[in-house]
Each structure stands twice: as structure tokens, then as C-alpha cells.
Amino acid sequence: MDIELADLLASLRSEISRARLESANEDVRFRIDSIDLELQVSVEKSAGADAGVKFWVVSLGGKASAKNGQTHTVRMTLTAEDATTREKVRTGDDVTDLLGAG
């Protein structure tokens, strides 16, 4: 099944928000510094009144059913930040000091 890139990003945003809410009272929380995505996408250009370009994320399971037979690799690095404070999102305490202490 293919999914529009915008829908994938909306789902990712929703999952991060859920993780943030569920960790609010936890002893250990994590800060998201960046989110790296590598996606196989199919590009579709439509004509007509609502002409434009859509990016479809191609499912990696089974056979790839790209709309035009060609897929492209898209790499993105995203930073999750609070819309109000512009600070990095925390889904738990920042444990980066612990990671370097080994």
C-alpha cells in the first residue's frame, strides 16, 4: 500500500506527540535531537483544475507498485521541536550524559 508523504509525516508527528504525553510522568525520558528518514517514493504529476505533484511513499513489503514504474530515494533529517517554545521535544529525561559515561 502506498501512502502520501504528507500523511506519513502527519502520522510521525502524531506518534511523537503520543510518546511525549505518555512519558510526562516517567522517571526516564529521551530528547529527540533528530529524526532521519530514508524513503522510497513515487512521484505523480496530475493535470486539471487541482494540478500538482504528489509524493507517494512506496511500501517496502511485497512488490513495489509505483504509479509510474519509477521510484526515487528521499532522505530527510527532521528536528522535533515544541511549536511554542521552539525547544527540542522530550519524550523523556535527557540521558545523553549517561551515554557518554560508559
Structure summary:
With 102 residues, this protein is an alpha+beta fold. The protein contains two helices and four strands. The mean pLDDT is 77.
Report on this structure.
There is one protein chain. It contains two helices and four strands; from the N terminus they run βαβββα. The longest helix is centred in the first third of the chain and has 18 residues, at 5-22. It has helices at 5-22, 96-100, and strands at residues 3-4, 35-46, 52-57, 72-78. Strand 2 (35-46) and strand 3 form a beta hairpin. The model has no long low-confidence stretch (mean pLDDT 77). It is an alpha+beta fold. The radius of gyration is 18 Å and the shape is elongated. The chain has a four-stranded antiparallel β-sheet.
What brief labels describe this structure?
102 residues; alpha+beta; 4-stranded antiparallel β-sheet
Largest sheet: 4 strands, antiparallel
Give a count of the beta strands, DSSP E runs of length 2 or more.
4
Question: Could you state the order of secondary-structure elements as H and E?
Answer: EHEEEH
Give the neighbour order of strands across the main sheet.
1-3-2-4
- β-strand percent reads 25-35%
What structural class results from the helix and strand content? alpha+beta
Record the SSE blueprint:
Blueprint: E1 3-4, H1 5-22, E2 35-46, E3 52-57, E4 72-78, H2 96-100
Antiparallel strand pairs: 1-3, 2-3, 2-4
Protein name: Trypsin-co-occurring domain-containing protein
InterPro entries: Trypco2 (IPR045608)
Organism: Streptomyces zaomyceticus
